[in-house]
Amino acid sequence: MALMDGPLRWRKVGGPNAVDVEAARSRSQRLTADCSRLLSQVDKTSQHLQQDAKQTLEQRVRDIRFLREELERRLEEVLEEIDALVAFKTRVERALEACSDPLRVTLLCLDERTKRAPVEQACDEVERELLREMEVFEGVASLLQRTLEQIIEQIRLNRSAKYHLEKDLKNKFQAQSIDDSCTLMTNHSLNPNHRPKDLPLSPPPSMAVSPEEWEGLSGINISRAEQEKANSASLRVLVDSLLEQTACDMRSQLQATASAFQRKIQETKTVKAQMEEHLARVQCELTSQKRNMEALGVAVAEKEIPLSVAQARLSARAQRPGTELCHDPAQARLLVEVQELTAYINKMRKAAALSATAQQSLVRCQLELEDNLEVKANSLYVDEVLCGQYREPTVIHHF
């Protein structure tokens, strides 16, 4: 009766009964066990997560390092290509400068040849070659100027690719440094007082780039660098061929013009020599004609004396008286003498007039020949001396 009174008395006073105590103790034990298992699970999971995160970071570092190596290789190639293009730019600039003097000489030659006599200013072979030479030189200069602009633009594109590669490399370097430091972090390496708090559980908008997009952006920079490198290499091959061809074209045209000058000079010298020979003959003939005219004058003067004698005889015999004034043989002979002498004198005077006309014609020929010789000498001086002096230093070297 006393034993049964205990639980009743516990319920009456409001205290816990044995069942409740046992249940509370059992729950506590289960909670302790659950907490122990939870702690063990959390510890294992934390270690596993931390190890996975470290391995992922290490893989990320390897990925970044691989891309950095690719970017650095492309950057080195782009830098080499920029240096090569800058060297070609210098070659083209020097080639442009080398075009200015030959073009100036060509224009000087054209200007000097306008100072020749009007009769010599026909569009001859030399004039055509000089005009063609001017056209070639101006065309080469224009082509080189356009090529220089293309090189400058390609250098700009190469430097733009270089800028993006360097920017990407800088970002990759910073990211690798951060991830390297993250792989070195441990549970004991952080200062508890400086642990970050309230980190966002979702990535910020600035990190809205997938790994594929991240790799693709570097791929774009690499592809762009490869494309610009290929374009630059093609341009260098084209420019090298262009410089060689333009130099060859200019040398060929210079040679063609020089050959035309030589032929023209030789032709002028030949014509001038022929004119000098004709002039010498004309002068010789003019001297001969002067002597002939002098001889005719002397002969006329000499024959006028016998004519005067014959005429005086006839005049004297006309004074004969009466029947003595007959037409005897002497009279007839005197008349024949006067007639023949008069005829010869008239012939000599006519010959003298013709000789004077011939002399005038020869003098005109002499003056014309002398004028033409002066014209040829001036043309020869312009082509051989002036243009020769201008063109002698002109040499087209390899660009």
Explain how this protein is built.
Helix 2 runs antiparallel to helix 3 and helix 4 runs antiparallel to helix 5. The longest helix has 107 residues. The model has no long low-confidence stretch (mean pLDDT 87). The protein has 399 residues and is mainly α. The chain folds into two domains: 201 residues, Ferritin; 104 residues. Microtubule inner protein (MIP) part of the dynein-decorated doublet microtubules (DMTs) in cilia and flagellar axoneme. Forms filamentous polymers in the walls of ciliary and flagellar microtubules. It holds the Pfam family Tektin. It comes from Merluccius polli.
Number of domains: 2
CATH top level class name of the largest domain? Mainly Alpha
Could you tell me the number of beta strands?
0
Tell me what portion of residues adopts beta-strand conformation. under 5%
Radius of gyration: 61 Å
General form: rod-shaped
What is the average of the pLDDT values?
Answer: 87
The separation of the N and C termini measures: 130 Å
CATH architecture tag of the largest domain = Up-down Bundle
- Oligomeric assembly: single chain
Number of helices: 5
Give the biggest sheet. none
Structural class per helix/strand content?
mainly alpha
Subunit structure: Microtubule inner protein component of sperm flagellar doublet microtubules.
Family: Belongs to the tektin family.
Subcellular location: Cytoplasm, Cytoskeleton, Cilium axoneme; Cytoplasm, Cytoskeleton, Flagellum axoneme
Function: Microtubule inner protein (MIP) part of the dynein-decorated doublet microtubules (DMTs) in cilia and flagellar axoneme. Forms filamentous polymers in the walls of ciliary and flagellar microtubules.
